[in-house]
Amino acid sequence: MNVLATGQTPLTISIAAAVASLLLLLVVFELIRSRRLRERYALLWLLTGLVLLALSLWRGGLNTMAGWFGVQTYPPAVLFAVALLFVLAVLLHYSTVISKLADQNVVLAQRLALVELELSARGAPTPAQLLEPDAAGAPETPVT
Amino acid sequence: MRKVAIVPAFDEQGAIGGVIDEIAAFDPTIDVLVVDDASGDATAAVAVSHGATVLRLPFNLGIGGAVQAGFRYAAKYDYDIAMRVDGDGQHDPSEFASLLDVVLAGDADICVGSRFAGTDGFRSSAARRVGIRILARTVSMLTGQRVTDTTSGFQVLNRRAVELFAEDYPHDYPEVEAAVMVHKHRLRLVEVPVRMRERVVGRSSIRGARTFYYMAKVMLAILIGSLRRRATPLEER
Q: Which residues from A are below 8 Å from B when comparing CB atoms?
């Protein structure tokens, strides 16, 4: 008997995993459709859903892959591993997105402060003063 | 020769007035820019009443972001010299004279007042001293130049250094990384011994267990920063 001979994936697991992958894909599609998720951030999620769906349906492939990695008793473990890998990739991607947003936020705050200072130096009310005309003693805002 | 003093301040209503007065006493021709890092107290009002220009950040950016805002101001309004002094009163603006001499003589693009490069007059907790020592060693190693105080916010910078930092300045614990950046951009950094006072009012932003967090973050930043390729010297851009 081959040392690397693997067990078989139970059918119920394949069905459950396929349903879960389909649900993930559906939710992602709906989020894109309703404009709550930008396409560029959705791509990784779609890829995740598609790969998991493929591995759930293609039972022979999952068993073979389990063999490659020496998973002998329980092939669906490979499914978990792949899912975990994709989730890590998505999280890392988000960390880069957050870092970029934070950097842009700093630049925006600095430029806003400089613009406000310049406006007040020219005697014009700054946006902050327009919001609270009494507090900062700004000129009356025109009433239309 | 137009000079601006950049004073980052966060909740320093008790100390900021004195700092501004001391700068004016040192040289009344210096424009004082207080960068109010979204203080919750009357820092901005006190600074204005002492004759400073106040740049008010809409929300707290931390020391790096506040100082960089000051550099952007200095670059935008064409100042020849920027002087950095902390808003908590631990620096004595009369010590600016020796730093200014170095920069005006053209011997450095950035001159840093160091607590350890000679005279004493500064005592700090043991943990902080060790931390500062480790950082100084690391920076010295990376830049091939002896640096004794990488955490000093008491500096004089010429136009070239201001333009560099207006574009790109580190965030959290900026002086350490800035020392490495300066080296990579082939600007000249010179340290001059200065005395510093104990904090009179307020508390240091870095204390206790957070010291270790900052150490780890800064070490990561300078080690990776030294591997960064982007460091194109300014004149070659």
A: 106, 109-114, 116-117
Other Cβ atoms less than 10 A from the Cβ of A144: the count is: 3
pLDDT at B199 > cutoff 70: no
Q: What is the mean pLDDT of residues A94-118?
A: 93
The answer to whether the beta carbons of residues A80 and A16 sit under 8 Å apart is no
Position B16 scores a pLDDT of 95
User: Which among B64, B14, B197 is positioned nearest to B122, based on CA atoms?
Assistant: B197
C-alpha to C-alpha distance for B30 and B175, rounded to whole angstroms: 23
Contact A113/B65, CB-based, under 8 Å? no
pLDDT score at B207: 59
For residue B77, CA distances in Å to A60, B1, B18 come to: 69, 13, 25
Quote the minimal CA–CA distance from B73 to chain A in Å.
7
pLDDT for B90-114, tens place per residue?
889 999 999 999 999 999 999 999 8
Place of tokens 């950016």: B61
Q: For A112, which of B35, B58, B171 is closest by C-beta distance?
A: B58
Which pair of tokens denotes residue B186? Answer: 């082939």
Q: Which two tokens stand for residue A14?
A: 């394949």
| pLDDT attached to residue B36 | 96
How many Å lie between the alpha carbon of A106 and the closest alpha carbon of chain B? 7
Q: Cα–Cα distance between B14 and B42 in angstroms, integer? A: 9
What percentage of chain B has pLDDT greater than the value 90? 49
Q: How far apart are CA A79 and CA A55, in angstroms?
A: 7
Give alpha helix (H) positions in chain A.
Answer: 11-33, 39-57, 59-68, 76-121, 127-131
